[in-house]
Amino acid sequence: MGIVSWRRRDGARMEEHGAPGEAESDQDKAALWQVLREEVRQCQACGLHRTRTQTVFGVGNTEAHWMIIGEAPGADEDRQGEPFVGRAGQLLNEMLFAVGLSRQRVFIANVLKCRPPNNRDPKPEEVRACQSYLQRQIELVAPHILLVVGRIAAQHLLDSSAPLGRLRGRVHRYGEEKIPLVVTYHPAYLLRSPLEKRKAWADLLLARSVLEGRGE
Ligand code: URA
């Protein structure tokens, strides 16, 4: 258990579950998800394991075209073990609905799998300790578009210190697969600043236009 064969896109095989590449079959892929889920569940790689109620792995369709990435679980998510279930989550659901999507059709994950106490910003060492989990989730879902909500997640994924206003409004590319990535405001920010919803709507349309360009 834990070692699953991968076949790389260049044809080479890798006997390591964390290696990038393409799973051989649906069964292998399910095994990889299972291994990853269990690793996250037992993770003690940073101090957040001491204060969490439980880890928050991610939720949704593992074959989704859209993958939504947020920052870290809050109190509701820590309690329920699912990302974006609080007020910000409700707004995220509405945003998805507005572009014809539902939570069941996308995959939702966070940069951090554990709640930072009092919802403080993640520390760089916590992000580092957690980053291979998100990386492997992205490889397994292989989404056609990454929608990244909020400054913290956007700066991490784009390895940038630019403010969110400079990162939104265009299509970035992520990783070796050059997955299109669009940044938008965090729904918790939109709850506080509803006038910015207009810009978030433009970001969603931009993300959707990327998929429409692929004929989806
Ligand atoms: N904010 C996030 O970034 N993620 C969640 O899961 C909840 C709130």
Describe it for me?
The chain has 8 helices and 9 strands. With 216 residues, it is an alpha/beta fold. It has one domain (26-213): 3-Layer(aba) Sandwich (Uracil-DNA Glycosylase, subunit E). A hairpin with a 4-residue loop joins strand 8 (172-174) and strand 9. Helix 1 (26-42) packs antiparallel against helix 4. The model is unreliable at 1-20 (pLDDT under 50). The chain binds uracil.
Summarize the structure.
This protein is an alpha/beta fold and about 220 residues long.
What is the strand arrangement across the widest sheet?
4-6-5-7-9-8
Kindly state the percentage of residues in helix.
Answer: 40-55%
CATH-derived architecture:
3-Layer(aba) Sandwich
- When the domains are counted, the total is 1
Main sheet: strands, sense, barrel: 6 strands, mixed
The succession of helices and strands, N to C, reads EEEHEEHHEHEHHEEHH
Find the structural class using helix and strand composition. Answer: alpha/beta
Secondary structure tally, helices: 8
Please report the total strand number as a whole number.
9
CATH class placement: Alpha Beta
**Overall mean confidence score, pLDDT:** 90
The small molecules bound here are: uracil
Keywords:
alpha/beta, Uracil-DNA Glycosylase, subunit E, six-stranded mixed sheet, three-stranded antiparallel sheet, disordered N terminus, binds uracil
